[in-house]
Task: inverse folding
């Protein structure tokens, strides 16, 4: 079930809200159980067969949490339990997500020695596996109390707002809120606002711009030289906006929904396209994943505080290769991750862009950063290395392709208004305007009055596009 | 809660209004859209829980409360943003809507070959075969396509026409007729629908009668095709066509609809036997062949004024006119394009039995030919029929599911 569906908006969400708040008044203890049951229904709705995997993961990590807590004082035993936990969780992920990929590659090297397997990928397995591991690791580190009640572990792992597309909520973030949260009118209304913003980003920007991106890749697939240079760039830009507004929109909806039930998730995106460097980009993009790898892999490996540059480079390589691989079992994701390894290593070792002094060089580096991100998305979106190479070649007129086609003009004109909005909303434009308005009492009042009107209009418009169009891609099925 | 209202600012009030409005919308929509869910929950016999869930999934969006208003709003916003494409529908430069072209399509002679086999089969039985080819919107005139969009429709149309003519099959080429008689696309088709207008269908009727008179030895009097012997009733802003239902009334407007019926001088008594539904209607033209309920003003997204002629899609039906000037029996294969045309043709021909291969499954088409024994077989096909898998299967009994238009 998608958040951006009429079924979720007008059936699932009202039922969950009614049930939750009735229970809150009549029998508060059952609120968490209600949320857990409805979250499992949410997952089972789209994946009836794989809900068992989710429940198994919950139970496994619940038991590991208890074991770790029991042997906390015995460091060696606790470490062994932690290791076993990591191995088992990653094994689960490996079997469902990477086994086929591994076999294909081994067969390519050694010549069809292993039987080919086709295993369906449970949606959200990367998210909930990482989240479940976060629970046990945070218990181990003492960053959160162990949950004696398996239902609470279940709630933490399976809570529907963040189950299939993140953000990856760290246990320490919500540990207290599982049993001691306070639902307030202010949070609820804030949550509504956030949810609407996310829905609008997804339906009004991401889904519509995805058509232009898909068209570019479709032409690219027709063969070398088929995609004009200008359309290649247009398609890449549209995809960059698609993935940003889709992913950040989903995160906004998750954060908003969490707030409606008293949970406070951390931000997952912070205007990444205004970044001045690649390092800054990864502090603004998919923050929950970046911090997960930083706190659970990079820092335990030594992080930046290592004795040799070789060790630093190794640590970065481990993180970025795995970050790429986390996104999907395909070489293009690994290459994408390794691209960032190269760029971030460059920045770490040279000290650029901190060393840049002039406005011009800083501006140029910012453009360079954005260009790298854009080209990275081309690789990320492509289905295989050949498609990625063809597409990149088309962007730089290396494929014997024309510069322009009338169809490029058609696609651009059809999306011009949305592209303009996409550019504006990629920057904290309205945030700044709101801050400016707040300095003047009258403007502040006008802004206060316009806010609910604007958000309601966005909600109604989003629903209009949702029920009319049939194109609402779910791009996280690889994750 | 008390704390919240203690320092109650304008900002808090506005925030509260937003929250309350959101709750109101989703709950009112939940209640308003409950029918699909209840219908799925009532219809659970022989189904497991996953199948019931799939039923709800696939139908819920169709029953969203006030869906028509949302579609209208979507179309309005797309119009404001200057979007030429919405929900698989393309807006031509003249403001008319058509299906988004499928892209480059390679012509296949398969349909013409099958038609030729049918022609040979019918010739052995001394039955004439006439193929009426109707062009589609958009592809007919590339000047109307937005710059950058190409449509293979013209190429397919011309290739098929040439092949049919080469094979010696009688062809009534409506694209040529439209060009020779100065028809602009706006006159041929509705703005918001894929069908040709009733006036265009009347023109096609006139051309059909002329063709029969010139080629098949009939002598149907001119009065049966003289528009002055017909009444034209105009219904303004009545018809939101198939493309319009996908994009809303504010994307390209609403079509007027014309009802053309014969005056008393040429009217007759008809028997309309809807064989596949076991239903018979008798009376004059209006009583038997016109379904006035489709002309009532109601929900644009539900009504279909085009079905005012003959009432809708039927697998097999027959129209009999005992007082017709021509006693030829016609067996027609058609889709919805043929509704108004066949209604007019029933004024001239004593019997017209028609089948729609998208729905007919009782036997093969040649079985129908052998049973009905027509004088002439006529195919009234638009280019859409080239891409379905059933419309040119004449010799086999079809067992695939119904093919939608």
Result:
């Amino acid at each position: 079930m998608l958040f951006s569906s009429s079924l979720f908006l007008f059936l699932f969400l009202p039922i969950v809200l009614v049930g939750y708040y009735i229970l809150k008044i009549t029998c508060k203890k059952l609120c968490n159980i209600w949320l857990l049951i409805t979250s499992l229904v949410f997952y089972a709705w789209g994946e009836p067969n794989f809900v068992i995997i989710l429940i198994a993961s919950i139970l496994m990590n619940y038991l590991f949490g208890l074991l770790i807590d029991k042997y906390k004082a015995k460091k060696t035993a606790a470490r062994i339990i932690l290791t076993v936990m990591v191995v088992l969780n990653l094994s689960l992920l490996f079997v469902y997500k990477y086994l086929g990929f591994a076999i294909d590659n081994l067969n390519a090297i050694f010549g069809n020695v292993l039987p080919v397997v086709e295993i369906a990928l449970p949606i959200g397995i990367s998210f909930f596996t990482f989240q479940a591991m976060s629970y046990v690791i945070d218990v181990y580190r003492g960053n959160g109390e162990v949950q004696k009640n398996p239902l609470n572990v279940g709630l933490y792992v399976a809570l529907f707002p963040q189950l299939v597309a993140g953000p990856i909520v760290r246990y320490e973030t919500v540990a207290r809120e599982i049993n001691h949260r306070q639902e307030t009118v202010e949070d609820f209304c804030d949550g509504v606002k956030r949810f609407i913003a996310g829905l609008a980003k997804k339906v009004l920007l991401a889904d519509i711009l995805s058509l232009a991106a898909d068209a570019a890749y479709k032409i690219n697939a027709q063969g070398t030289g088929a995609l004009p240079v200008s359309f290649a760039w247009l398609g890449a830009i549209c995809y960059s906006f698609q993935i940003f507004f889709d992913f950040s929109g989903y995160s906004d909806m998750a954060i908003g929904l969490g707030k409606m039930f008293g949970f406070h998730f951390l931000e997952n995106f912070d205007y990444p396209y205004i970044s001045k460097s690649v390092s800054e980009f990864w502090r603004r993009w998919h923050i929950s994943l970046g911090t997960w790898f930083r706190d659970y892999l990079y820092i335990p490996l030594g992080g930046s505080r290592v004795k040799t540059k070789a060790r630093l480079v190794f640590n970065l390589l481990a993180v970025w290769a795995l970050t790429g691989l986390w996104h999907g079992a395909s070489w293009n994701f690994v290459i994408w991750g390794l691209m960032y390894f190269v760029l971030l290593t460059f920045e770490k070792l040279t000290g650029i862009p901190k060393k840049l002094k002039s406005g011009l060089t800083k501006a140029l580096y910012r453009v360079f950063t954005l260009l790298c991100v854009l080209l990275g998305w081309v690789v990320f979106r492509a289905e295989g290395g050949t498609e990625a190479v063809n597409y990149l070649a088309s962007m730089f007129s290396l494929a014997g392709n024309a510069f322009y086609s009338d169809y490029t003009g058609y696609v651009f004109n059809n999306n011009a208004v949305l592209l303009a909005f996409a550019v504006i909303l990629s920057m904290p434009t309205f945030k700044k305007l709101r801050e400016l308005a707040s300095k003047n009492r009258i403007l502040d009042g006008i802004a206060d009055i316009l806010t609910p009107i604007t958000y309601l209009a966005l909600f109604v418009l989003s629903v209009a596009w949702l029920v009319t169009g049939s194109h609402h891609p779910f791009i996280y099925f690889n994750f | 809660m008390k704390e919240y209202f203690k320092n109650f600012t304008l900002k808090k009030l506005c925030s509260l209004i937003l929250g309350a409005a959101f709750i109101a919308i989703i709950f009112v929509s939940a209640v308003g859209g409950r029918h699909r869910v209840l219908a799925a929950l009532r219809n659970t016999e022989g189904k497991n829980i996953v199948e019931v869930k799939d039923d709800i999934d696939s139908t819920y969006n169709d029953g969203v409360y006030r869906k028509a208003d949302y579609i209208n709003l979507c179309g309005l916003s797309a119009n404001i943003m200057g979007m030429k494409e919405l929900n698989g529908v393309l807006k031509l430069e003249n403001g008319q809507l058509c299906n988004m072209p499928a892209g480059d399509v390679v012509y296949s002679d398969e349909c013409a070959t099958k038609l030729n086999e049918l022609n040979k089969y019918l010739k052995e039985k001394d039955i004439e075969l006439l193929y009426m080819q109707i062009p589609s919107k958009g592809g007919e005139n590339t000047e109307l396509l937005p710059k950058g969009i190409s449509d293979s429709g013209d190429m397919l149309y011309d290739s098929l026409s040439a092949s049919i003519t080469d094979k010696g099959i009688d062809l009534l080429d409506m694209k040529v007729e439209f060009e020779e008689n100065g028809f602009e696309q706006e006159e041929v088709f509705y703005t918001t629908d894929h069908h040709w207008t009733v006036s265009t269908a009347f023109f096609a009727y006139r051309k059909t009668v002329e063709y029969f008179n010139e080629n098949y030895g009939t002598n149907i009097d001119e009065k049966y095709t003289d528009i002055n012997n017909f009444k034209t009733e105009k219904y303004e802003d009545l018809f939101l066509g198939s493309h319009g239902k996908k994009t809303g009334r504010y994307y390209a407007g609403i079509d007027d609809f014309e009802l053309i019926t014969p005056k008393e001088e040429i009217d007759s008594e008809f028997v309309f036997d809807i064989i596949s539904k076991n239903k018979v209607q008798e009376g004059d033209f209006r009583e038997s062949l016109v379904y006035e309920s489709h002309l009532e003003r109601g929900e644009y997204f539900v009504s279909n004024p085009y079905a005012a002629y003959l009432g809708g899609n039927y697998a097999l039906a027959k129209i009999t006119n005992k007082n017709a000037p021509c006693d030829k029996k016609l067996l027609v294969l058609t889709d919805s394009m043929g509704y108004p045309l066949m209604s007019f043709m029933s004024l001239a021909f004593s019997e017209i039995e028609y089948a729609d291969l998208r729905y007919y499954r009782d036997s093969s088409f040649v079985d129908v030919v052998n049973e009905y024994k027509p004088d002439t077989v006529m195919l009234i096909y638009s280019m859409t029929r080239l891409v379905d898998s059933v419309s040119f299967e004449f010799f086999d009994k079809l067992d695939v599911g119904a093919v939608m238009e």
About this structure: The two ends of chain A are 16 Å apart (CA to CA).
